[in-house]
């Protein structure tokens, strides 16, 4: 008996549609989020993540609706991120059917938000999303905002350590250098984050080949998030699971899905 | 009719939908009368032991649960909703570092798991108790867990176990009182089957 590694497709949602581009630009329409969530559940996804990249408040309303509809059909954990700035925003998402929320920029702007959310709903609902890139900070990894376009000067590892102490229950580590390139996860970054984090670690950004998933696990990731390789059918979740299972990793069987 | 006890914040919508897949009528309520009279009562729970107990007591949920036990009315605790059925929770909060009294259906402390990475988050298997009704047809399946604390002593008629760093109680079946540390409503088709198994006992 071992805890299975989690395979998590991420759906970037705007105006009620799923999009995903290379390095967060050149968005290509990839489908209906509720349909895709349902499909991924059947294919054996262990969790789902919606990232709301809407710029407008009407877009965020639409996302709430997407969450509600997904919660009616999808019986695996759902994390929603994007634009969350307050305890009230979190409450709205949980009430709509999200199980966890991920916060990013708002926590950088106002770190107390972490404690506020953790105190109200528990650490287990709170994922800290860290968009990091290689830069000359202490650890060699810097926190960025605006989809990796803006550096903050904050050291990524110091930020993770601080956020865990303040109450985040999980880290979503997204390599902005690797994101969308399909050239593999940033293994060194995962290893560095693992060495200082005692909460679960989700690796994100760069998955392009089946071996990439195994390398990220070897570096210490507990869960693996990917978007474009699944959305555009490079391979299916069951391919990843079969590969990992044959390589000796513990995965959740999907036979009865 | 199944009542899901609403005594705080959290995602009750998917719990409602999951229990509806069994064909039962499901309502989310904080009305003590409905919670007491329902054929089945589901006690969900997110957050921490102390805040959960506080919320539960505010809606009179502790008394409802004890009365349902006395009247042998099926009651299912999920996650923290299972933990608060024990006599004591050791999870501290910012305000209170000492232990908290639970509803006390079962004797035992809910203590922090000893494992390098916490919370225990994700899909894990269960060694189900012999003759388990809840796990009928889903023995050996994985279920979704999210927690850092757990009960570690055998209680009730049937105790099922899971291993994460150490062995802990992942489900209890004890007459009308049942509980799972994992989230059946988030455990895909295996979870829906477990919910169906419980619903059939109502």
Structure, described:
Chain A has 257 residues and is an alpha/beta fold. Chain A has a single domain (6-246), classed as Aldolase class I (TIM Barrel). Helices cover 38% and strands 25% of the residues of chain A. Chain A contains ten helices and twelve strands. Chain A has helices spanning 33-43, 57-73, 87-96, 105-109, 112-121, 156-166, 187-196, 210-218, 228-231, 237-246; strands spanning 6-14, 17-20, 28-31, 48-52, 78-81, 100-103, 126-134, 141-145, 150-155, 170-175, 201-204, 223-226. Chain A has an eight-stranded parallel barrel, surrounded by eight helices. In chain A, helix 3 links the parallel strand 5 and strand 6. The radius of gyration of chain A is 17 Å and the shape is globular. Chain A starts with 5 loop residues before the first strand and ends in an 11-residue tail after the last helix. The relative contact order of chain A is 0.15. Mean pLDDT of chain A is 90; it is low at 21-27. Chain B is an alpha/beta fold and 202 residues long. Chain B has a single domain, classed as Rossmann fold, CATH 3.40.50. In chain B, 25% of the residues lie in helices and 32% in strands. Chain B is built from six helices and 13 strands. Chain B has helices spanning 13-20, 32-37, 49-58, 61-70, 80-83, 188-200, and strands at 2-5, 26-29, 40-43, 75-78, 86-89, 100-101, 106-112, 120-125, 142-147, 149-151, 158-164, 166-174, 177-180. In chain B, the strands form three sheets. In chain B, strands 2-1-3-4-13-12-11 form a seven-stranded mixed sheet, with helices on both faces. A four-stranded mixed sheet of chain B has the order 6-5-7-10, covered by helices on one side. In chain B, strand 1, helix 1 (13-20) and strand 2 form a beta-alpha-beta unit. The model of chain B has no long low-confidence stretch (mean pLDDT 95).
